[in-house]
């Protein structure tokens, strides 16, 4: 019989950061208001997914371009092994959480199916050029040789992944997904054979950037974003909200708000 939980706080990371970010930004507790905390990493060379404490090692590539696959596989693991009442809070691995704000959000009873910070307010879905992933691999070419990353392309071949959908989606490091949204994502990735390199005409490559991929799949299934300030990483965001969001995105201390607001976020419960 599956253990019943209200939801899962799913923090995605990689082997590169397991001894740095996963230790430095680890949440103090393993459960908040009935929501269990899990950390996910990928290793395509293992036989099966495995739960080690609260770390889920997935039979999945551990690369940046595979984050969408890793996150949805993590969601699949949660639903295969737990009876989930509400949904999943998907988070990055370089956040300073305010635990009181986290609990307040988790206890909200009027959460929508898909919530997060609006990254693009496009009224329609179309294709646009986006060089984020090619630029990333031009400056991280060593990743192509990493056996845990499982990337079957040369740096020249990676340059073609510069077309993605343009649509309204939840950008960044904290996104809420209901049971309905999670089920939709898993079913969709099953239907494409978990192939994140698949091209979808006329939208380009919708699965290579995780937050765009999630928004694209949900939009195609008539699940639309509700904007909500789940985290901050810009001064203007902090100034305009009458609440302390769940988390401060440090971007591994590249964010200049960290020194200014870190103490506020650490005033936890």
Spell out the helices and strands N to C.
EHEEEEHEEHEEEHHEEEHHEEHEH
Architecture, according to CATH?
Alpha-Beta Complex
| Main sheet overview | 9 strands, mixed
Q: Residue-averaged pLDDT, rounded?
A: 92
Number of helices: 9
Determine Rg (CA atoms, Å): 18 Å
- Summed up, the domain count is 1
Under the CATH scheme, which class? Alpha Beta
Overall 3D shape: globular
Helical coverage, percent range: 25-40%
Strand tally: 16
- Residue windows where pLDDT falls under 50 for at least 5 positions: none
Considering the protein shown, what is the CATH homologous superfamily?
Spore Coat Polysaccharide Biosynthesis Protein SpsA, Chain A
CATH level 3 topology: Spore Coat Polysaccharide Biosynthesis Protein SpsA, Chain A
Structural class: alpha/beta
**Distance from first to last alpha carbon:** 33 Å
Sheet-strand content, in percent, reads 25-35%
């Amino acid at each position: 019989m599956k253990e019943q939980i209200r939801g899962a706080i799913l923090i995605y990371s990689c082997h590169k950061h397991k001894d740095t970010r996963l230790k430095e930004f680890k949440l103090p507790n393993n459960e908040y208001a009935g929501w269990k905390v899990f950390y996910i990493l990928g290793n395509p060379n293992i036989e099966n997914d495995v739960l080690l404490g609260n770390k889920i090692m997935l039979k999945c590539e551990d690369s940046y371009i595979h984050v969408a696959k890793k996150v949805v596989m993590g969601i699949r693991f949660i639903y295969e092994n737990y009876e989930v009442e509400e949904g999943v809070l998907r988070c990055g691995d370089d956040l300073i959480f305010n635990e009181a704000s986290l609990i307040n959000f988790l206890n909200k009873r009027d959460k929508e199916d898909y919530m997060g910070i609006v990254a693009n307010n496009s009224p329609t879905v179309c294709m646009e050029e986006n060089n984020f992933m090619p630029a990333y691999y031009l400056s991280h070419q060593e990743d192509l040789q990493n056996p845990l990353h499982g990337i079957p392309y040369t740096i020249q071949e990676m340059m073609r992944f510069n077309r993605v959908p343009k649509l309204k989606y939840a950008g960044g490091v904290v996104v809420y997904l209901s049971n309905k949204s999670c089920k939709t994502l898993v079913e969709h990735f099953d239907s494409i054979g978990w192939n994140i390199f698949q091209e979808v005409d006329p939208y380009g490559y919708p699965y290579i950037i995780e937050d765009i991929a999630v928004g694209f799949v949900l939009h195609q299934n008539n699940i639309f974003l509700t904007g909500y300030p789940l985290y901050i990483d810009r001064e203007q965001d902090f100034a305009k909200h009458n609440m302390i969001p769940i988390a401060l995105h440090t971007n591994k201390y590249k964010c200049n708000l960290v020194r200014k607001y870190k103490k506020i976020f650490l005033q936890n419960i």
